[in-house]
Amino acid sequence: MLVTIERLTKTYGKFTAVDDVSFVVQEGEIAGLVGPNGAGKTTIIHTMLGLILPNAGTIRLFGKSLEEEREQILQRLNFTSPYMAFPVRLSVRENLTVFASIYNVRNPAAKISELLERFGIGRLRDKPISRLSSGETTRVGLCKAFLNDPELLLLDEPTAYLDFHAALQVRDILLELQRSRGTTILYTSHNMHEVQRMCNRIIFLSHGRVVATGTPIEVTRNVLKEERDAPALDEVFIRIAGRQPDEAVSN
Question: Could you give the residue ranges of the DSSP H alpha helices within 146-232?
Fold first, then answer.
């Protein structure tokens, strides 16, 4: 397994953000990590990046312990979120050049140019980040995420600030890049139609716990207790979001 999370727990005082979570992601898979606000999705991603330390549990990426081999692991993955902050006085190109140096990207100018054109923001290369819209900044983050041709990509709501047409374009680009490179993706989103289209398998969280895993159809049948040929993930999301903490664990 490319990603193995075992009994991961993170608490803040008396609040448990992630509660004994275990799951795996196979190489080349697009796995959706989904659930209501506060379910623990971003906390899990931040622990996988080494940004926060769990209270308990283990994280293994590429068969290696994150605790023991963090630097080597981080060179092989990348991350983006619409909420990440870039130095606002630097231009798009300058920001991406800084990240390219961190990831030891060969021929960074060519790589940056390629990604800017692919994500439709080549015209913005010399524009300061402070003058970009939220959607444009989101695209810069996606360019940053592909700089090092990552084997594992953590995408936290990557289309949150994009309009419908732009989000559709970005999803197509992500699928194209994933298919051509075999990149493994852990994908979070509140858009269940997006999850249904993008993800081979989903991991549903509620109140910091895993409540359902499987393909979209398997999760739908498990949670709604109905036989369906097509996923109804919106209904699953509503059902899970309405549960109380002591009702969260099913399967």
Answer: 164-181, 192-198, 216-224
Nearest to 170 by CA among 147, 198, 128, 190: 198
Rounded alpha-carbon distances, angstroms, from residue 87 to 21, 129, 154: 34, 7, 21
Q: Which structure tokens are listed for 97?
A: 């050049």
Q: What is the pLDDT of residues 110-169, one digit of tens each?
A: 999 999 999 999 999 999 999 999 999 999 999 999 999 999 999 999 998 999 999 999
Structure tokens at 38: 């506060």
Of 156, 186, 189, 187, the closest CA to residue 83 belongs to 156
For 199-226, the pLDDT digits (tens) are 999 999 999 999 999 998 888 888 888 7
**Dist. CA 206–CA 230, nearest whole Å:** 23
What sign for the dihedral angle of Cα 229, 233, 235, 241? Answer: positive
**pLDDT category of residue 245 using cuts at 50, 70 and 90:** low
Distance separating alpha carbons of residues 247 and 216, to the nearest angstrom: 21
Instruction: Catalogue all structural domains in the chain, each as residue range(s) with its CATH number.
Output: 3-76+150-247 (3.40.50.300), 84-148 (no CATH)
Q: Give the C-alpha separation, 99 to 149, whole Å.
A: 13
- Separation between Cα atoms, residue 189 and residue 139, nearest integer Å: 16
What distances in angstroms separate CA 181 from CA 49, 55, 76, 146, 228, one per listed residue? 22, 35, 13, 11, 33
- Give the β-pairing of 56-61 and 3-12: antiparallel
